[in-house]
Amino acid sequence: MLGDGHSFDIAILDMHMPEMDGATLSTEIRRRYDAESLPLVMLTSVSSSARALREKHGDLGLAAFLNKPIKPSQLYDVLIGIFSNGNAVKPSAAPQGRPASGVVRRLPLRILVAEDNVINQKVALRMLDRLGYRADVAGNGAEAVAAIQRQQYDVVFMDVHMPEMDGFEATRKIRAIEGRLTHTNIIAMTANALQGDRERCLESGMDDYIAKPVRQSDLAAAIKRRLPYVQGAEGGAPSPVAADELVDENVLRELQDLGGEDEPDLVGQIIRMFILEAPQRIELIRTGLCTGDLKTVRETAHQLKGASRQLGLRAMAALCQRLEDCEKTPDRSGNENVLAELHVQFQKTAEILTAKYPLKGQ
Q: Which domains are assigned to the chain?
């Protein structure tokens, strides 16, 4: 037991236990150990989402949630992710048969392959495994939506034509589920490499497009495009951007002083407005790039840049400047890559801001 002289590197708790449930136990553990000295992973039933548990019990100081039944690959990736973020013990090697690439060691990605063809599933999983990634599988769009509701994925490779629910409808449902503060990178896979297919994929809410037959290099390139902080599946990954590189605290302090005693929540009000409006502006930019309306891209990026600078959001302002100069980049995919990075940085920035200035009613 904890406190009897034994030391532990991590605790994995079941949510539903007799006498004392996982939420109560995690609260008791946090009274003795902080999150850095003893990370906690909570195992929950499929019907219990992480969001619902946080709403009912509060933060709980958990490093991760996992839905039962637990897959070894999921548990492995969670443990790697926890320990690679600076905790005491570093796993020395990947399981036998899995190449431990620099990307996996530093940034384990949660990947879902939504594909109804069993042969295509096996090929995609093998390619990703060769790149150093493990992936889950969904046999159709409905299963992909259900998987997204159970846990968050960094990348979804979405087949366009599937039974029960196709990739277009699945993507629209996922976007509706995610809300404003999260964005799953969805990459379309289709055998119909016809003119207009790419536009239809992007219009449905997908982020990228690769044509079948899919090659390993296509998967690696798509991951690199959608996650700009990953240098590539063949090489290493830099450390995640530090919080002070995303948000200039001095600017926020000045705004807080501006509010004074008369309006002490001035910064919170402005941040809440920004977090509610920014996704709409990002969506306008995406639509403008998709339709070739560069005027809308320029004007919207300029507006978002101004708001970002006003709040001291360095990374977002820099990316908006690049999108404002979209006409200087003749290759549309270059602007789409910048937009994908803007999605990522907004999510990271919003997490930092809401941690300090929680949204009312959230």
A: 11-84 (3.40.50.2300), 109-226 (3.40.50.2300), 243-356 (1.20.120.160)
Tokens coding 198: 């790419």
pLDDT at residue 170, as a whole number? 94
* pLDDT for the residue 152: 78
φ, ψ for residue 189, nearest 5 deg = -125, 120
Average pLDDT, the chain: 76
pLDDT over 90 at 130, yes or no: no
- Kindly report, residue by residue over 235-279, the tens digit of the pLDDT: 333 334 445 567 888 887 777 777 677 677 778 888 888 888 898
- Percent of the chain predicted with pLDDT > 90: 11
Residue 11 CB partners (closer than 8 Å, separation 6+): 2, 29, 38, 39, 40, 41
Q: What's the chain look like in SS3?
A: CCCCCCCCCCEEEECCCCCCCHHHHHHHHHCCCCCCCCCEEEEECCCCCHHHHHHHHCCCCCCEEEECCCCHHHHHHHHHHHHHCCCCCCCCCCCCCCCCCHHHHHCCCCEEEECCCHHHHHHHHHHHHHHCCCEEEECCHHHHHHHHHHCCCCEEEEECCCCCCCHHHHHHHHHHHHCCCCCCEEEEEECCCCCCHHHHHHHCCCCEEEECCCCHHHHHHHHHHHCCCCCCCCCCCCCCCCHHHHECHHHHHHHHHHHCCCCCCHHHHHHHHHHHHHHHHHHHHHHHHHHCCHHHHHHHHHHHHHHHHHCCEHHHHHHHHHHHCHHHCCCHHHHHHHHHHHHHHHHHHHHHHHHHCCCCCC
Of 48, 47, 44, 6, the C-alpha closest to 22 is: 44
